[in-house]
C-alpha cells in the first residue's frame, strides 16, 4: 500500500527556503518584520508546498482564527448565491476565511449549524435568519459572538443588520400601478408575522393611501414565498366577486407563480392583468412582456454585512446599526406601461 503523503510543516518550509523555523513562523503569522528577500523565499516555499498551517492552534496564540461563519438557507431565494459571493469577497479582502453552512431555513437546523460554527472558533457570524429563530440570535448575543443579520430584517435594536428598504419602495411600486388607473390592486405576499412581509404590506397600504385608492383587505393574500404559493394566491384573488386588474408580487418566487397561473387561465400579463414585482428575477427581461420590478442591491447588502461585522470585531462596544439599502427601479411593460416611461 503506498505511503500517504504527509502534511507539509514549518520545518519543510524552513528547509526549502533555507531559513529557520522561527523565521517561517514570523512570516506566516506576521509577528515580526522580516527582510523582503527572506519573506519572498518563505512565501514561495508556502506556495510550492501548499502549506496552510494549523488555524486552531494558531488561534490559541493570536486569539483569533481569521474565520467567520456564514449561515444561510442555500435553497431559499435565488439571490442567496450573490449574497454569499459578496460576503466572501469582502471577507477575503480583509484577510478572513468564510465557513459556509446551510440552515435549510429551519430554526432547529440553524441552531445546530451555528453551534457547529462556534465549535470551529469562528470570530463572528453573518446570518440570514430563519423564521422563529429569536432564540438562536439570543444565544449568539449571550455568548458574545459578533453577529450581523443579513437580508431579513427584524424589529430588534440590539444587533447589527442589513437588508432592503421595504416600505417606501413598495409604496412607490403601488403608486406607479395605481397611476395607470387601476383601483383594484392585489398583493401576493409572504407569511404574516415576518418583518419583510409585514413591511411590504405596510408599504402597499401606504401607496394605496397616497394614490387615493381604497384599502380592501381581501386583495391581500399571504402564503408561502414560492412559485406554488404565488399561483395559489393569484387563484384566490381571481375568484373574488370583483377580482383585481393589477397584482403586485412581494418577491420573485411568487411573481413566477402569478405568471404561471395567469397563463393557465388565458390572461395576458400587461393587458388583462398588470403585474409588478418587488425583486429582480433572472428571467425578468426574458418573458413577454418583460417584468417591471424593483431590484434589491443584493451584492451591496452582502458586502455591507461583512463591513459591519468587521467594524464590530474592531469595536465590540459600538452601537448596533441597521442599514436599509434602497432597491433600484427596473421599468418594463408588464405593468401595462409603454417602454418609454422610465420612472415610477
TrEMBL record:
It comes from Prauserella halophila. GO terms for molecular function: DNA binding. This is LacI family DNA-binding transcriptional regulator. The keyword DNA-binding applies. Gene3D superfamilies: 3.40.50.2300, lambda repressor-like DNA-binding domains. Keywords: DNA-binding, Repressor, Transcription, Transcription regulation. Residues 8-62 form the HTH lacI-type domain. SMART domains: HTH_LACI. The keyword Ribosomal protein does not apply. InterPro entries: HTH_LacI, LacI/GalR-like_sensor, Lambda_DNA-bd_dom_sf, Peripla_BP_I. The lineage of its organism: Bacteria, Bacillati, Actinomycetota, Actinomycetes, Pseudonocardiales.
